[in-house]
Protein backbone atom coordinates (compact mmCIF):
# COMPACT_ATOMS: atom_id res chain seq x y z
CA UNK A 1 0.00 0.00 0.00
CA UNK A 2 1.52 3.27 -1.14
CA UNK A 3 0.69 6.66 0.29
CA UNK A 4 1.46 10.19 -0.81
CA UNK A 5 1.91 12.79 1.87
CA UNK A 6 2.74 16.48 1.76
CA UNK A 7 5.44 17.42 4.23
CA UNK A 8 7.72 20.47 4.30
CA UNK A 9 6.03 21.71 1.10
CA UNK A 10 6.97 18.51 -0.69
CA UNK A 11 4.86 15.62 -1.88
CA UNK A 12 6.53 12.29 -1.18
CA UNK A 13 5.45 8.73 -1.72
CA UNK A 14 6.08 5.95 0.80
CA UNK A 15 5.21 2.27 0.83
CA UNK A 16 3.28 1.54 4.02
CA UNK A 17 3.90 -2.18 3.50
CA UNK A 18 7.64 -1.72 4.03
CA UNK A 19 8.13 -0.13 7.46
CA UNK A 20 11.61 -0.09 9.03
CA UNK A 21 11.08 -0.44 12.76
CA UNK A 22 14.09 0.97 14.62
CA UNK A 23 12.76 0.45 18.14
CA UNK A 24 14.03 -2.00 20.74
CA UNK A 25 11.29 -3.99 22.46
CA UNK A 26 10.80 -4.66 26.13
CA UNK A 27 10.24 -8.28 27.07
CA UNK A 28 9.99 -10.62 30.05
CA UNK A 29 13.17 -12.54 29.18
CA UNK A 30 15.53 -10.24 31.06
CA UNK A 31 17.49 -9.22 27.96
CA UNK A 32 15.99 -5.84 27.12
CA UNK A 33 18.54 -3.11 26.38
CA UNK A 34 18.89 -1.16 29.60
CA UNK A 35 20.84 1.59 31.36
CA UNK A 36 20.91 3.93 34.35
CA UNK A 37 21.28 1.16 36.93
CA UNK A 38 17.61 0.18 36.86
CA UNK A 39 16.34 -3.40 36.91
CA UNK A 40 15.24 -5.18 33.77
CA UNK A 41 11.64 -4.62 32.72
CA UNK A 42 9.23 -7.11 34.27
CA UNK A 43 6.11 -8.56 32.65
CA UNK A 44 4.28 -10.81 35.08
CA UNK A 45 0.75 -12.19 35.46
CA UNK A 46 -1.45 -10.66 38.11
CA UNK A 47 -1.88 -12.91 41.15
CA UNK A 48 -5.05 -12.57 43.26
CA UNK A 49 -5.28 -15.33 45.83
CA UNK A 50 -5.34 -18.64 43.97
CA UNK A 51 -6.02 -16.93 40.63
CA UNK A 52 -3.06 -16.31 38.30
CA UNK A 53 -3.60 -14.22 35.19
CA UNK A 54 -2.11 -16.74 32.76
CA UNK A 55 -3.94 -19.05 30.37
CA UNK A 56 -1.14 -21.57 30.85
CA UNK A 57 -1.95 -21.61 34.56
CA UNK A 58 -5.68 -22.03 34.16
CA UNK A 59 -7.02 -18.51 33.65
CA UNK A 60 -9.29 -17.66 30.72
CA UNK A 61 -7.11 -14.70 29.73
CA UNK A 62 -3.54 -13.48 30.01
CA UNK A 63 -3.58 -10.53 32.41
CA UNK A 64 -0.12 -9.06 33.01
CA UNK A 65 1.39 -6.26 35.01
CA UNK A 66 4.32 -4.47 33.38
CA UNK A 67 6.96 -2.71 35.44
CA UNK A 68 9.58 -0.65 33.63
CA UNK A 69 11.43 2.64 33.58
CA UNK A 70 10.90 4.51 30.29
CA UNK A 71 14.38 6.03 30.37
CA UNK A 72 16.19 2.86 31.38
CA UNK A 73 14.38 0.07 29.53
CA UNK A 74 14.26 0.06 25.74
CA UNK A 75 13.44 2.69 23.15
CA UNK A 76 11.83 5.84 24.53
CA UNK A 77 10.99 9.38 23.48
CA UNK A 78 11.33 12.26 25.92
CA UNK A 79 10.43 15.94 26.01
CA UNK A 80 11.99 18.91 27.79
CA UNK A 81 10.05 17.89 30.90
CA UNK A 82 12.87 15.40 31.47
CA UNK A 83 15.10 18.23 32.71
CA UNK A 84 12.73 20.97 33.96
CA UNK A 85 11.11 21.77 37.29
CA UNK A 86 7.93 22.50 35.38
CA UNK A 87 5.89 19.50 34.27
CA UNK A 88 5.82 18.84 30.54
CA UNK A 89 4.20 15.71 29.12
CA UNK A 90 5.43 13.94 26.01
CA UNK A 91 1.78 13.14 25.27
CA UNK A 92 0.97 16.87 25.10
CA UNK A 93 4.17 17.95 23.35
CA UNK A 94 4.18 15.48 20.45
CA UNK A 95 1.12 16.20 18.32
CA UNK A 96 2.48 15.39 14.84
CA UNK A 97 3.84 11.96 14.08
CA UNK A 98 5.28 12.07 10.55
CA UNK A 99 8.50 13.94 9.77
CA UNK A 100 11.22 14.17 7.18
CA UNK A 101 14.30 12.45 8.58
CA UNK A 102 17.94 11.92 7.75
CA UNK A 103 19.79 8.78 8.86
CA UNK A 104 23.54 9.18 9.36
CA UNK A 105 26.22 6.83 10.64
CA UNK A 106 28.99 8.22 12.84
CA UNK A 107 32.00 6.63 14.49
CA UNK A 108 32.46 8.70 17.66
CA UNK A 109 35.85 10.29 18.21
CA UNK A 110 38.05 9.10 21.06
CA UNK A 111 38.51 11.91 23.59
CA UNK A 112 40.40 10.58 26.59
CA UNK A 113 38.23 7.80 27.99
CA UNK A 114 35.14 9.05 26.14
CA UNK A 115 33.69 8.42 22.68
CA UNK A 116 32.17 11.69 21.50
CA UNK A 117 30.11 12.65 18.46
CA UNK A 118 31.45 16.03 17.38
CA UNK A 119 29.89 19.00 15.61
CA UNK A 120 32.19 18.47 12.61
CA UNK A 121 31.00 14.89 12.21
CA UNK A 122 27.35 15.95 12.20
CA UNK A 123 27.91 19.00 10.01
CA UNK A 124 29.83 17.06 7.36
CA UNK A 125 26.87 14.72 6.90
CA UNK A 126 23.89 17.09 6.95
CA UNK A 127 25.27 20.52 6.01
CA UNK A 128 23.20 20.74 2.82
CA UNK A 129 20.06 19.10 4.25
CA UNK A 130 17.22 20.38 6.40
CA UNK A 131 15.35 17.41 7.88
CA UNK A 132 12.87 17.72 10.72
CA UNK A 133 14.39 14.67 12.41
CA UNK A 134 17.93 13.30 12.64
CA UNK A 135 18.66 9.63 13.32
CA UNK A 136 22.21 8.87 14.46
CA UNK A 137 23.61 5.34 14.16
CA UNK A 138 26.90 4.96 16.02
CA UNK A 139 29.69 2.76 14.71
CA UNK A 140 30.64 0.02 15.23
CA UNK A 141 27.05 -1.18 15.08
CA UNK A 142 27.17 -4.44 17.02
CA UNK A 143 24.07 -6.63 17.34
CA UNK A 144 24.69 -6.59 21.10
CA UNK A 145 23.11 -3.12 21.16
CA UNK A 146 19.76 -4.91 21.11
CA UNK A 147 20.23 -6.43 24.57
CA UNK A 148 23.19 -4.63 26.16
CA UNK A 149 23.18 -3.36 29.73
CA UNK A 150 24.93 0.01 29.40
CA UNK A 151 25.18 0.81 33.11
CA UNK A 152 28.72 1.76 34.14
CA UNK A 153 30.05 1.46 30.56
CA UNK A 154 30.45 5.17 29.65
CA UNK A 155 28.63 4.94 26.28
CA UNK A 156 29.21 7.31 23.38
CA UNK A 157 27.44 10.67 23.56
CA UNK A 158 26.95 13.95 21.67
CA UNK A 159 29.09 17.00 22.37
CA UNK A 160 27.46 20.22 23.48
CA UNK A 161 28.62 21.93 20.25
CA UNK A 162 27.08 19.17 18.14
CA UNK A 163 23.75 19.44 19.97
CA UNK A 164 23.82 23.22 19.54
CA UNK A 165 24.47 22.79 15.80
CA UNK A 166 21.58 20.32 15.49
CA UNK A 167 19.30 22.86 17.15
CA UNK A 168 20.53 25.69 14.93
CA UNK A 169 19.77 23.52 11.87
CA UNK A 170 16.14 23.55 12.98
CA UNK A 171 16.00 19.82 13.67
CA UNK A 172 13.11 19.20 16.05
CA UNK A 173 13.48 15.48 16.70
CA UNK A 174 16.77 13.82 17.56
CA UNK A 175 17.11 10.02 17.64
CA UNK A 176 20.20 8.06 18.70
CA UNK A 177 21.12 4.43 19.41
CA UNK A 178 22.81 5.14 22.76
CA UNK A 179 21.10 5.41 26.18
CA UNK A 180 21.55 9.18 26.23
CA UNK A 181 22.74 12.14 24.21
CA UNK A 182 24.86 13.04 27.26
CA UNK A 183 27.75 11.44 29.11
CA UNK A 184 26.73 8.73 31.57
CA UNK A 185 28.43 10.49 34.49
CA UNK A 186 28.44 14.22 33.79
CA UNK A 187 27.67 15.52 37.30
CA UNK A 188 24.16 16.49 36.20
CA UNK A 189 25.29 19.04 33.61
CA UNK A 190 23.21 17.54 30.77
CA UNK A 191 24.98 19.77 28.26
CA UNK A 192 23.63 18.14 25.10
CA UNK A 193 20.06 17.92 26.38
CA UNK A 194 20.14 21.58 27.37
CA UNK A 195 21.76 22.72 24.14
CA UNK A 196 19.25 20.83 21.99
CA UNK A 197 16.23 22.13 23.91
CA UNK A 198 17.73 25.64 24.29
CA UNK A 199 17.23 25.30 28.02
CA UNK A 200 18.79 28.68 28.85
CA UNK A 201 16.94 30.58 26.12
CA UNK A 202 13.58 30.28 24.36
CA UNK A 203 12.95 26.65 25.18
CA UNK A 204 11.94 24.31 22.39
CA UNK A 205 8.92 22.75 24.06
CA UNK A 206 7.82 20.96 20.87
CA UNK A 207 11.13 19.13 20.31
CA UNK A 208 11.91 15.56 21.36
CA UNK A 209 14.83 13.25 21.97
CA UNK A 210 14.53 9.52 21.30
CA UNK A 211 17.18 7.21 22.76
CA UNK A 212 17.93 3.49 22.52
CA UNK A 213 16.98 3.03 18.87
CA UNK A 214 18.68 0.37 16.77
CA UNK A 215 19.27 0.68 13.02
CA UNK A 216 20.47 -2.53 11.30
CA UNK A 217 23.49 -2.30 9.01
CA UNK A 218 21.47 -3.01 5.86
CA UNK A 219 19.53 0.23 6.25
CA UNK A 220 21.33 2.88 4.18
CA UNK A 221 22.23 6.39 5.24
CA UNK A 222 19.77 8.56 3.33
CA UNK A 223 16.53 10.52 3.63
CA UNK A 224 13.39 8.89 5.05
CA UNK A 225 9.98 9.67 6.40
CA UNK A 226 9.83 9.04 10.14
CA UNK A 227 6.67 7.91 11.92
CA UNK A 228 7.34 8.58 15.61
CA UNK A 229 4.87 6.61 17.69
CA UNK A 230 4.45 6.90 21.47
CA UNK A 231 2.12 5.51 24.11
CA UNK A 232 -0.27 8.02 25.66
CA UNK A 233 1.57 8.50 28.94
CA UNK A 234 1.21 11.84 30.72
CA UNK A 235 4.88 11.75 31.65
CA UNK A 236 8.11 13.37 30.51
CA UNK A 237 8.89 10.22 28.51
CA UNK A 238 7.14 7.27 26.94
CA UNK A 239 8.15 3.97 25.38
CA UNK A 240 8.18 4.62 21.65
CA UNK A 241 8.23 2.99 18.26
CA UNK A 242 10.04 5.07 15.63
CA UNK A 243 9.45 3.68 12.15
CA UNK A 244 11.25 4.78 8.98
CA UNK A 245 9.84 4.68 5.44
CA UNK A 246 11.92 4.97 2.31
CA UNK A 247 10.95 7.88 0.10
CA UNK A 248 9.70 6.60 -3.25
CA UNK A 249 8.73 9.79 -4.99
CA UNK A 250 9.52 13.47 -4.64
CA UNK A 251 8.10 16.62 -6.17
What does this structure look like?
- By secondary structure, this protein is mainly β.
- Helices cover 11% and strands 33% of the residues.
- The protein has helices at residues 90-93, 119-126, 160-168, 191-197; strands at residues 2-7, 10-15, 20-21, 42-45, 47-48, 51-52, 64-67, 76-78, 98-106, 109-111, 114-117, 133-138, 157-158, 173-176, 208-211, 223-230, 237-250.
- Strands 8-15-14-12-9-16-17 form a seven-stranded mixed β-barrel. Strands 10-11-13 form a three-stranded mixed β-sheet. It has a two-stranded antiparallel ribbon with strand order 4-7.
- It is globular.
- The mean pLDDT is 96.
Structural class assignment: mainly beta
Cα gyration radius (Å): 19 Å
Q: What is the rounded distance between the termini?
A: 19 Å
Spatially, the strands of the biggest sheet line up as 8-15-14-12-9-16-17
Main β-sheet, in a few words? 7 strands, mixed, barrel
How many strand elements? 17
Order of helices and strands: EEEEEEEEHEEEHEEHEHEEE
Return the average pLDDT rounded to an integer: 96
Rough shape?
Answer: globular
Helix content: 10-25%
**Number of distinct helices:** 4
Strand content range = 25-35%
Low-confidence stretches: none
Amino acid sequence: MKARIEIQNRVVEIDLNQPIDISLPMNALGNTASAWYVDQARIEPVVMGDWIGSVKKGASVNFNNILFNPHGNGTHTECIGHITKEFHSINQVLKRFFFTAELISVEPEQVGEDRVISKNQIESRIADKNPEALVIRTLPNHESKRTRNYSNTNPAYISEDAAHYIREKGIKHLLIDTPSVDRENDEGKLLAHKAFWNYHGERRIDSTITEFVYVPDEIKDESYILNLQIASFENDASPSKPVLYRIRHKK
